[in-house]
């Protein structure tokens, strides 16, 4: 054996070589993650995904980044173009399932992939991947932060209605209860978006999993301190949820509505047609809960609906007309677009 060959063998086995190899692989992983996040179209993402899946260092973080980026990009892609562009992502689904079976998936990855699946359910559904996540997530929820818990509960509410056959009653119960426990512990860390997501999800899940209602007092106690920071979408979601929860959590809803009504009145001018429609629908259902506050709010909503430059779709028109009919005796302004 030559001296040079012996030195090469020694170098390969040395801690320095292993350190350099690890550092190079770490750098390659980071560069791939940045490339995934930097894609600007599904076509470009599909090309990067193919390369990433072939890499020896591909891991759950890359899979999570691919799913998240795909969910974001599909919302900006014309629906007619989606079927042809999404054909190349079956390999990603299979690899994600494999990673879940291996157990090499963090709480953050679980939450991100579940959230992404909720956005992709109409264009890239996968019952096998969702089944794997349902089994895996309960063991990870205890280590999730406030955002991950909020996103997971929101996604669960979306997916159990979109893909109900994937969820058994026992699995859904277990999944929701561990998320409820985590959210109850970390509600003080939640920002307006998290609280809005949790309120919406609670209202959606209450008939399937009544124990989710345990969250309502915790959320209602937190929202008034955050309500001024809420954007119109958050306010409209919370108002809609309050209307859905009025019979199941009457006292908590009664405490919440005045704070929501005041902020909605201030920000109604920034609301889009869906948010306005949801708010006036909720006001009709909640009028007996906070009549004074809503009597002031409804005329403001009506004025904004009449002034909105974008025409409502039929469902929004129907909802608004129904609410106006319910409100007409209590708030006459709902018929004429506000006081003159």
From TrEMBL:
<dbReference type="InterPro" id="IPR050870">
    <property type="entry name" value="FAST_kinase"/>
</dbReference>
<protein>
    <submittedName>
        <fullName>Uncharacterized protein</fullName>
    </submittedName>
</protein>
């Amino acid at each position: 054996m030559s001296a040079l060959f012996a030195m090469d063998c020694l170098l390969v086995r040395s801690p320095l070589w292993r350190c350099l190899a690890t550092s190079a692989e770490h750098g390659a992983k980071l560069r791939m993650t940045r490339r995934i996040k930097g894609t600007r179209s599904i076509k470009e993402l599909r090309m990067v995904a193919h390369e990433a899946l072939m890499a020896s260092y591909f891991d759950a973080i890359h899979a999570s980044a691919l799913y998240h980026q795909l969910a974001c990009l599909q919302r900006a892609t014309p629906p007619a173009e989606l079927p042809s562009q999404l054909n190349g992502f079956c390999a990603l689904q299979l690899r994600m399932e494999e990673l879940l079976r291996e157990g090499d998936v963090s709480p953050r990855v679980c939450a991100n992939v579940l959230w992404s699946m909720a956005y992709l359910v109409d264009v890239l559904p996968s019952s096998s991947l969702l089944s794997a996540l349902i089994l895996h997530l309960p063991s990870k929820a205890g280590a999730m932060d406030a955002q991950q818990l909020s996103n997971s509960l929101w996604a669960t509410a979306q997916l159990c209605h979109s893909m109900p056959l994937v969820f058994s009653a026992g699995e859904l119960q277990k999944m929701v209860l561990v998320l409820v426990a985590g959210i109850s512990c970390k509600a003080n860390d939640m920002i307006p978006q998290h609280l809005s997501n949790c309120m919406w999800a609670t209202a959606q899940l209450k008939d399937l999993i009544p124990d989710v209602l345990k969250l309502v007092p915790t959320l209602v106690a937190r929202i008034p301190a955050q309500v001024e920071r809420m954007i119109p979408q958050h306010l409209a979601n919370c108002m809609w949820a309050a209307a859905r929860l009025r019979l199941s959590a009457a006292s908590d809803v009664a405490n919440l509505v005045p704070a929501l009504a005041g902020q909605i009145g201030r920000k109604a001018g920034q609301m889009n047609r869906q948010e306005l429609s949801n708010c006036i629908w909720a006001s009709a259902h909640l009028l007996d809960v906070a009549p004074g506050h809503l009597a002031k709010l409804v005329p403001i909503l009506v004025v904004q609906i009449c002034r909105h430059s974008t025409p409502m779709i039929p469902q929004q028109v129907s909802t608004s007309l129904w609410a106006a009919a319910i409100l007409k005796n209590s708030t006459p302004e709902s018929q004429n677009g506000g006081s003159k």
